[in-house]
Design goal:
homodimer; Nitrilase/N-carbamoyl-D-aminoacid amidohydrolase; six-stranded mixed β-sheet; alpha/beta
Chain lengths: ~550, ~550
């Protein structure tokens, strides 16, 4: 049997677009002699459609899409994913279904049994888990059709009450299909491959794995679809961060050498962020981005990534020096813009700052310069950038990094403005690594930007290290707290100073109010701020 | 047996505070001769603790709290709620437990079986559902100890695979205890009473129901704990929006006439918002609020509610007229501030606006006045209010209503700034009703504020009705879409103009990016923007 795998970039709720994309791949597969073509989980709706799934109208549109795609399955079969109504009078309203389409109709349906409901996942919010399992017979083959998490049942510490493959294997399938929407994080591809290989080995079956690719707001899908033979050997691996389409003969699953191993962490983050920016703009039908270029490393790296994603001609950099900005900051920012051939303007915030201080003077009673005036500068920058955005239709890119977002080192409605946060899931120490990665062939980001001590430049001679521990210490503490969920005692026992640890954890917790108001953050780690980390604003833990 | 019910306001993660509060009620109950005192669901941790539950350190602190409370149960028993580790090597890491404490130790544990995982609820994210059920024997009584949703199994369309009471009833309990954290919405108390009465009647058992009270960021708990006799008659009903404590004799469950029926919708919203503001400030240890007072109805109602919550002496109103503000707006705002005896300043935004335009002029190439300049005014107001906030420690109250938030009729980083959104879950038509409710005894909010056509006053002669359908039409369309999840065809079939319906639904969907960056919104309806309504920013549904 010849099987095609279509790794595509869907768009949530764009039924026409998703249908066209799927049908076009069905035709391509048929033209190339495939018997079956496989698409990823919830391909018809896009993933995650979140609470759109609560609208009957949305599900009816999915149903209709499935029917119209089925009609195209003439002389070829297809597996597509779609939410569907749970027709049983029990349990959640919906099922997460894999439709096996053949002969112009729905031949069979397999429903997902294991519903991830952690981190960014909310599947048990919508979907009733399947409780019975049947292999699908097609031509001379018996197929175990599974959906993403269905293969993630773990034997040693089972999260779920059952293991779908243990049921399906009793029916002697010839191979496994797994359709997935498995989001990227820099350590996920490795883990995913291990799990899938483990399944192939355990059940002695070939496995065809089709993943989503592309960005859905903050959630990035890296693709990396796989074909694994019955010995558990990966015989082919799809492109990362790109659509891809390949065909295999089940009778002849030879090792194909165009494998595409996922790269190292920093390269993965780099590629993922570029896809994230690019898809955000494409899908929203925007072309042009603007950002504030400070001469610091965060806005520098953001600008380079945006230039790679959108093209340098679609960017506008605004330098917004204040009286506390150093000359080298402006020079470094100009050098970068010129290296990238990006249009830039230098606009002083002085007049607006002076007018603001004059307006406030009668009410501020000669109180000393403090955080109010510091934030005022950042907010005037936000105000000017948003004025450009509103006047010319630029989308403002937010340049805050994860370390800052964690400890609240940023001004709400100031440098925290923007439509999309590019680096909000990248710790400062990794931002430095990204800068060096970008510069590995030539100096694009001025070395001075990389080498000088980080500073917000909102008061004379300010340095980040006045308020925060060194980033290599801070980031390790944050990683232990945020990614690993370690408490203060554990982190102190790792050898960090107790006062610093307690201060950092407290800063993380009290600054939840700021993070609630930040733009969507492109998720590249296993625990990003945003939908995968849900915290009350009002709480007293570790304060 | 004498049973005390303690309806208390907990604070998430404030273990010391929650323990002290619980122990103090245990002592009070004991002094008053009670055999047993009942506290609400997850009383030890506060609810919803969200992802703090993922920290072992947090759960260990809960464990220790339970142990230290148990030690106080000498001569009296207590039921408290706490998360606990799932010691079974299967399923989710935690259980949502009710601890029955007596003789200085944990006598028995009942675990929650039905995990709400819809709207604001994420319980299946953390908790493994209980699968076996045992009544608790205490003194001469057999007790069916259940937790909140456990009594919400519905017979006609079961959401869950089992019904805990059907198991417990087999063991012949004498009465039911239900400990809850059932959040307020203006129609929830009625539904809750129906469900609880139905349980009492079905099983012919008395029911002691103890709910949370108080606000946890945006989630409001109204209390209204209940005692129901075995005929399903409500014999006592606790205070709404206040802590309360009462004692009953199980052998003598007479109808008590100090019942406290929940009020009508507008009064409920009014009372709930006041508690929401008040608790937000108390728990964060802030006293003073600031807001921009425009002369319009939203900021007027917000100021009145804040004055009731925080006291007029803790408020600062800033009037920020622009060249497009009408005289009556300023007069109406001044009249309100004076009616409430709230400190106010009138600060012109003109100088900053002119300086901003001058700064931008070289880049705006004489392009006509548009949304950029409109938003500039709103953002200058945000900037000035935040400067006051930073200089003096005021928390800025956001004054946007739900209708505006729905269709994106507001300026991000402008009038959408704030630490807490007071009216973000109240449709404009209900804001008018709130204003009339506030004025029912005397004219606090100037009638002119209530009667004039709503306007943002950001360009000459602007009215909301230039851009939006009349609010009585808009709000009905929004209610059908947001609360009832109806699609466009259904809403059009109700008799609304097709173009208006499609335009409104599109506005709701494309403005998700703004709502992602709004402050927490006090939840008073069954579907508020925020954690209970999760939507992708990038999507094409109904566009």
């Amino acid at each position: 049997m010849k099987i095609a795998l279509a790794q595509l970039n869907y768009f949530i709720g764009d039924f026409k677009g998703n249908i066209d994309k799927i049908i076009s791949s069905i035709k391509k597969a048929k033209n190339q002699g495939a018997d079956l073509v496989i698409f990823s989980e919830l391909s018809v709706s896009g993933y995650p459609a979140q609470d759109f799934l609560e609208f009957d109208d949305f599900i009816i549109k999915c149903d209709n899409a499935v029917k119209s795609i089925a009609k195209e399955c003439d002389g070829i079969a297809a597996v597509i994913g779609s939410p569907s109504f749970n027709k049983n009078n029990k349990g959640k309203r919906l099922l997460n279904s894999a439709f096996f389409l053949a002969d112009g109709k729905i031949l069979s349906i397999a429903n997902k049994a294991l519903m991830p409901n952690y981190d960014i996942f909310d599947e048990y919010r919508y979907f009733e888990p399947a409780k019975d399992f049947n292999i699908i017979k097609f031509k001379d083959k018996k197929i175990a059709l599974t959906i993403c998490e269905d293969l993630w049942a773990e034997d040693d510490r089972p999260l779920y009450p059952l293991n779908p493959m243990e049921e399906l294997i009793k029916q002697n399938p010839d191979f496994i299909i797994n359709i997935a929407a498995s989001p990227f994080s820099f350590n996920q591809a490795k883990k995913r491959k291990e799990i899938l290989v483990k399944n192939s080995k355990k059940y002695h079956l070939p496995l065809f794995y089709v993943n989503h690719v592309g960005a859905q707001t903050e959630i990035l899908f890296d693709g990396g679809s796989l074909v694994i033979n019955e010995q558990g050997k990966i015989i082919d691996e799809f492109e990362y961060f790109k659509e891809d389409f390949r065909i295999y003969d089940t009778n002849n699953l030879n090792d194909i050498s165009n494998k595409n191993n996922p790269a190292e962490k920093i390269q993965l983050i780099h590629d993922a962020l570029i896809m994230g920016i690019s898809n955000y703009f494409q899908k929203l039908n925007f072309k042009k981005a603007i950002l504030g270029l400070s001469g610091g490393i965060d806005s520098a790296v953001t600008l380079v990534l945006a230039a790679k994603a959108l093209g340098n001609k679609n960017l506008k950099a605004i330098l917004l020096p204040s009286e506390f900005s150093s000359d080298h900051s402006v020079n470094d920012a100009v050098a970068l813009a010129e290296n990238l051939n990006v249009d830039y303007n230098i606009i002083s915030i002085k007049d607006i700052y002076n007018a603001s201080n004059k307006t406030l003077k009668p009410y501020f009673n000669n109180l000393p310069f403090n955080i109010a005036e510091e934030n005022l500068q950042a907010r005037i920058r936000g105000l000017l950038l948003m004025a450009f955005s509103n006047k010319y239709g630029y989308i403002l890119l937010n340049t805050s990094n994860k370390s800052e977002a964690a400890v609240g080192y940023g001004t709400l409605y100031g440098d925290m403005c923007g439509g999309l946060s590019v680096l909000g899931d990248v710790y400062k120490t990794d931002v430095f690594k990204l800068a060096k990665f970008i510069n590995k062939e030539k100096e694009i980001i001025p070395n001075n930007t990389i080498n000088k001590p980080p500073s917000a430049e909102l008061r004379p001679n300010q340095k980040d290290s006045d308020s925060l521990p060194d980033y290599d210490i801070l980031d390790k503490i944050l990683y232990n707290y945020i990614e690993l969920h370690k408490g203060p005692e554990h982190i102190i026992n790792l050898g960090f100073d107790e006062n610093i640890v307690r201060k950092v954890l407290k800063l993380v917790n009290i600054n939840e109010y700021k993070r609630r108001q930040t733009p969507p953050i492109l998720r590249v780690s296993s625990k990003a701020f945003g939908m995968g980390r849900r915290m009350p604003v009002v709480a007293k833990y570790l304060l």
